[in-house]
């Protein structure tokens, strides 16, 4: 019974830590894209009640944000999974360290994709309407980062 309670406590600690890192990852993406990412995801304007026409949500922003969060969650999962048998302090250190590394590498990859492709990825991601091919590329790059970091952990 003690093992069950201990495992549940660890699950809560990991979930909280991972949740904080995923929220941080979302806000970092919000910082590197123009405007407010949440408004791009939900569409509309700040002054809809004033009769200003609503804008469509950006499917590109949704695709990139989803890939960004999945990428970072995969890194966190792998860090937790591979260190679950160690003491909780060591496992949390690995989780936080690789979680932050995943966020940083996603920023770098996002900026590399923007540099190597025509147009401004940050603006394209936040353009209302259907997903643009460059957003698909940025999403794939983010998932690629996860694969590489996860392999380095394992």
Give the biggest beta sheet.
Answer: none
Over the alpha carbons, how many angstroms does the gyration radius reach? 18 Å
Report the uncertain regions. Answer: none
Domain tally: 1
Amino-to-carboxy terminus distance: 30 Å
The sequence of SSEs as H and E is HHHHHH
Folded structure, characterized:
- With 154 residues, this protein is an all-alpha fold.
- The chain has one domain.
- It has six helices and no strands.
- Helix 1 packs antiparallel against helix 3 (59-83), helix 1 runs parallel beside helix 4 and helix 3 (59-83) packs antiparallel against helix 4.
List keywords for this structure.
154 residues, mainly alpha
Helices and strands, with pairings:
Layout: H1 2-32, H2 37-42, H3 59-83, H4 88-116, H5 121-125, H6 133-153
Helix pairs in contact: 1-3, 1-4, 3-4, 3-6, 4-6
